[in-house]
Amino acid sequence: MKLAAVLLLCGQVLSYNYTTKYFEVPVDHFSFTNNATFKLKYLINNSFWVDDGPIFFYTGNEGTIENFAENTGFMFDIASQFNAVLVFAEHRYYGESLPFGNESYADPARLGYLTSNQALADYVDLINYLQTTRSRSSYSNKVPVVAFGGSYGGMLASWLRMKFPASVVGAIASSAPIWQFQGLTPCENFNRIVTDVYKTALDDDCSAPLSRSWKVIRNITSNDAGKAWLSAQWKLCTPLKTQSDVDTLVNWFSEIVINMAMVNYPYPTSFLAPLPAYPVRSFCYKMTESQTVDDETLLTTIGAALEIYTNYTQTTKCNVINETAAALGEDAWDFQACTEMIMPMCSTDDDMFENSPWDFDTYSENCYKKWGVKQTHPELPILEYGGKEISSASNIVFSNGLLDPWSSGGVLSNVSSSVSAVIIPEGAHHLDLRGENKDDPESVIEARQFHIRNIKKWITDYYYSRDRKFFKNTSLYEKVTFARRVNT
Questions:
Q1: Strand pairing partners for 38?
Q2: Are residues 192 and 170 in the same domain?
Q3: Mean pLDDT along residues 128-149
Q4: Which residues have a catalytic role annotated?
Q5: What is its main location (predicted)?
Q6: What's the mean pLDDT in 118-145?
Q7: Helix (H) or strand (E) run with residue 4 in it
Q8: Is the CA virtual torsion 312, 230, 245, 363 positive or negative?
Q9: Residues 225 and 326 in one domain
């Protein structure tokens, strides 16, 4: 089935074409007694591919794979330069890639196969199949594969290169918080970055009224009349009734504030929600002169400002407060965040959020109540992937935007001569993986050029190593043709 995703950005129409396919993978890659399989969805674009060209492989993350393909225009932008085939693989338990169909979330026994290791093994199997079907008849070896990923997908891309270097020649890991785990990164760093984004959005400190708002919300919703009033002001689909509802509202509000910082792009986008250029700035404009108003006016002002995120298209009739990013698989990610991807977060007096200490025991107990699983080893991903001891890795570029709160757990300095860090001062969440845009800051343009140079080197080195025998036993014409190909 062929699909074309057409995006309108600042008057520029971008068309990303792909064909939807499915590949059968084991439910459990690490068992010799479980033979169950399921169909993993992937998207493919062959239009740029020339015989023996590389594969650019996106390691899908927590959502439908179409959403990531449509927001990773960088791969489409450079595919013709490398004669590459583009592949976007969906992560198991997201989108259509459900190991047990509609029963995939039914119980812990079925959900237990939702791990990063299983997902990486899915990708390795798919890569092997794709390489095998694209080998040149004159060569016995396979075409090179470069992994790409953003956010959790960037973590997967880097881990794919670390654990399976024979499958991918290198990885572009954008906004990949591989160090956002217990003992590696202070839990308060994430929210401090979010706060800084709001502090600097305008000349007035936009974080101050937000810092005040949490106590105001708690005070006003301390009685039924206040709950009803705020439910109406913020246009909630389901009115607040209990203290638990208020807690859910506070979490929803916090997540929206964080999401706007993450996708604070310099042009309109629709990745997490339809948003204007620089949504934090637009939000803060609506908050101007709100620092000295009374409590009810403050919350009324915030409710109107939130519509930058919740109702930019003017089509939302009411707000569902247990969802902030419909395109992402929030339930499946919640399970992962309870089992393997436990990333400590906390708030202190030094940020604009309601104070909230990190308490692993309470976190683990809440996970057990919801999912029926209890993680007693939060250091598991550090043991699996090495934590900060990754100097033995090679051919990875970690890129991070300093406007992105996830940079708190990112690799911000070079690890070695072949594991590099790229800093994008004006960049939000994996901005460098998005398609070229006339409003791109210079720092993201430079980051993409750095990616291209590294990809060229990785592919050239691979071809040269693979084809040394070919080089020794071919004509001058064939050697020149080969050299032109690898240096395109």
A1: 25
A2: no
A3: 81
A4: 151, 404, 429
A5: other
A6: 85
A7: strand 2-9
A8: positive
A9: yes
